[in-house]
Amino acid sequence: MRALVTWGGWEGHEPDRVAALLRSILEDEGIGVVVTDSLDAFDDAEGLRSLDLIVPVWTMAELSRERAENVSEAVARGTGLAGCHGGMCDAFRGNPLWQFITGGNWVAHPGGDGVRFRLRLDPDHDLTAGIGDFEVETEQYYLHVDPANRVLAWTDFPTVSWYHAANGPAAVPAAWTRHWGHGRVYYNALGHKARVLEAGPVREMLRRGLVWAAQGRAAAAGLGVEVWQSAGSHW
Fold it and tell me: What local confidence, expressed as pLDDT, does residue 13 receive?
């Protein structure tokens, strides 16, 4: 299997260090990895379709319509897409297709970094079974999410008082899977700093999610996407 890890954007999320960590996780699983600090690979539609996995590590950047469509078509045909924190779901705020593919987008992290909160995991899903609920101290992402996502973990708001607290308690998804055509998509909201991902339950969640997403291309071999296509503009 082959994966592309592409990193850049806002330096506060340590994209170079997170990219190196994700590369290490993938290589430990026997997956070949190319790491780049450019989005130029998104210009190569056929090259993207030859990959088993795309791992974006970008925050607050811009993505053209053409590049988003190339990723969309690759994932729809089986290439996996997986990532974490702002590197995936706060990557390209101005691109609604990207938000549709990934299943969510960041809107706030009340309290900033250093908030202590609990993740509640689905004990019955293969990607979270046996890990158990755990506490973490980092940014707590409030996300707007696709109701079609298969949620793997939740975090409860409000943890700190701010204007959103007037709405009362809310369980916000913190990790999920979904499909885009034949492709598998995995997201985990943790990862503000590389240290959050380096060990323990967060690293194990990511490991399982990355491998699961990468395995989808083999399962999709030979399948077409015509069944989902309709006339007219897609977005």
Answer: 94
Measured distance CA(178)–CA(169) in Å, rounded: 25
Question: Helix, strand, coil: what percent of the chain each, to 5?
Answer: 35, 30, 35
- Asked if residues 57 and 90 have their Cβ atoms less than 8 Å apart, the reply is no
Residue 212 to residue 81: CA distance in whole angstroms: 10
Predicted pLDDT at 234:
60
Give residue 152's Cα distance to chain centre.
13
Fold of 2-228: Rossmann fold (3.40.50)
Region at 212 (left for phi over 0; alpha for psi -120 to 50; beta for the rest): alpha
* CA 65/CA 95 separation, integer angstroms: 7
User: Which sequence spans correspond to the domains of the chain?
Assistant: 2-228
- CA angle in degrees (0–180, nearest 5) for 58-60-64: 80
pLDDT digits (tens, 9 = 90+) for 56-69: 999 999 999 999 99
The pLDDT tens digits for 145-174 are 999 999 999 999 999 999 999 999 999 999
| 175 strand-pairing partners | 153, 188
